[in-house]
Amino acid sequence: MNISFIINNKEVTVDVKDEYTPLLWVIRDHLNLKGTKFGCGKAACGACTLHIDGAEIRSCSYAVKFAAGKHITTIEGLGNEENPHPVQQAWIEEVVPQCGYCQSGFMMATAALLKENNNPSDDEIDDAILNICRCGTYYRMRKAIHRAAELSRDQKS
Amino acid sequence: MSKKISRRKFLVKGGLGTLGVLAVGTAIFRNPIRREIIDFTDSFVAPYLGTGTEANLWFEITKHNTILLHSPKVEMGQGTFTGFAQIAADELDININQIEVIAAATESGIVDNLGTGGSLSIASMWTILRELAATTREMIKLEAAKKWGIAVQEITTKNGIVTFKDQQLSYAQIAENVTEWEIPSTPTLKPFKEYTLIGKPIPRIDLNAKVFGAPIFGMDAEMDNMLHAVVLKPEHIGATFKKANFTEANKMPGVVKIIQIDDWVGVIAKSYSEALAAKEVIDIEWHIPKKWSEEEIRSLITVGSGSEMLVQKEGNSLKKDESFLEIEFKSPLGAHAQIEPNGAVASYKDGKITVIISTQVVGITQKQVAKALKVSTEDVNIIPTFLGGGFGRRLNTYHAIHAVQMSKAVGQPVKYFFTRQEEFQNDMFRPPTHHIMRGKLNNAGQIENLEHHFASGNVATESVLLPNITNKILGADLGAIRGGSIHYNGIKNRRAIQWHKPLPFATSWWRSLGLLANTFAIESFVDELAIQGNKNPIELRLAEIKEDEEGIRLKNVIQKTQQHTNYSDKVKDGIAMGFACSTDAGTPCAQVVEVSIIEDEIKVHKVTCVMDCGIAINPDQVKAQCEGAIIMAMSAAMHEKMYIEDGQLQPTIFGPYQMAMIKHAPKEINVHLIQGIDKPGPVGEPPLGPIAAAIGNAVRRLTGERLTEMPLKLS
Fold it and tell me: In Å, what is the CA distance from B608 to each residue of B79, B242, B592, B594, B687?
């Protein structure tokens, strides 16, 4: 069956056999956008985090049927080298990634947080960012989140 | 003296100069296992091990005048590609934007048969890589000299350009027309002060790829006409295949084929979701010889049980009738829990095999696949990708074989990766450990005896990375003893005795091997001795270090830590400091943690880390390694634990397998680097050593309780 949605500002229609297929696999295998990662398949690690209508979603556990008609943003649509999103800019400034595998998910979670709260406290970051990074980049990540918030505020003003 | 190498020994791509300069430096092919075995575990920096004497690819000059380095080591986050780029670019006389690094595939490049691990990538390649790069630069200069009919000494090189007076040519312009390269004898390396990239904290060269979501990982790989596969493996420890009915599963949509080999079943389908759905309806029965319990597994790993090995013997042993302090410590079974699952994309066609894979052992995987599929190694091309975490897990990537077997069964390329449950239940775990520390102070308040009796499952034993002979000689497990000896060389009477026993499931390399648990036991105990003797724990340690080469460096990191933190063993405003140190693989590291108890939980606010790893090729990335190692070790020390329930390894998902999240990470981590030797030393593992003991030592000051078991919890 056909399901249509807008992904990274582009309208697409995908033909899926099972409407309960996790959105993650439709994005990775049908649309060939590999920036959104598989980590656990149980919404426990956050590697597959993306935005649906601006809200943070763990796409490994989100049936593609629910995405119909909605706006999806993945890491590829968040920004690019010429025009990075403040979160990506901050991640570059703080040189956050090590292996890098979980980082898309963290950046998407951070971008969603900053949309709600462009000056999060440390406690608010602790409550909102629940992804897992095995390389242990959390120390730089916290600095990058504060920096991204600052860049977001600058952009607005 | 120059020696010529024939045209056919070069691999040429796109008409541009692809340089195979393997003839450079005979040191490259030295046999590695020719040293004192004990060195291997403590300070051994293995020489680089090439794949053979055939000309292969190191540097490739592209038409854009950039140079592609085919790295014999893989990038798993540790920053090796960035370090290699800095090292090579400085001798190549190119700028950092002119170099790219990719992991060498077995077919086109040179891979390291020792794999990527042991914190050795930079240390082992430091001289060789500079020699290769310098030789390549000289080769380019020689060609320019011939072209211009001048002496090579008159040519200068910078930013990938050769210059003679007002004439200039790019490296690419020169390489374009060369049909036969002349290889000079290895040139003298530049003096250190002329390096402009080595030693500089430049951003990682893979930063943009990782920030903008580029498809660089094994999980992102694809092949044309590829099918998707999942595998069904037994969930119980030691279980084997008995029988199965695939009738229902074969009827499921998208299923192409279901195969059973040994103790696994492969489901190959048109999509991942379809393969997974079919796997769910397979009716399978396993033979479960025994349902292991947690208590049984734990009891296997006990001091006094298994094979005994005297690792260290200085002076006398404590006698049973003496009075001394004795404390037992334990660490649990730990998972690697790297976020990118293991997997492979494989193609088997007419006896030729290609595997794209996240692996730390490219050469070993090639041999394993060739052997299992009964083809020659030359018919197997292993293409390594960036790794979504390594941590030692990918020193065992035999699942490449399964992917190839499935491809062979369907006659199409197959992509296969582990589910998270499969990942947890088939990890090659960090084994649990048990330690008995014994020691006493003399009348002068100095440590008279210190003994570490410890038990572990396999780490290095049975690993394909080490010749079997090494274990037979030693009787001990070379990995499990890492950090197990007592480095306080001023203590007259020292013992380290290892007890070793394999478990009924695989345990293996986990970043820093035995260091994490061994240092926890030793450094917690030394702290307790200081308390018993009413001594400042840092002063007590310093008094027990003799100033030989290693002692001087260890003392230095300890004293610097003391200075940076104004260490005090008194609790102030509810915050206590905890100190610990270790020397791992020749790299001394000391840490002070600042800890308080908040709502009955241990909270680490700040970590100060001083490490002497010699020359830091990229100080910012060395610091990143320290920060990450500290957090990974904290996660293992405070949160993580696998257990056995009803004969199965549990848990099988993140969450129940508790790991540090951003809320658990210290808000401040200050890393200070010291250069105590004039070469780069190991970095990635040494900083995992001290943290667990440092936390325990702080908690002891806060609550009076000595924490003796990881994960560390208040009683």
Answer: 22, 55, 5, 9, 11
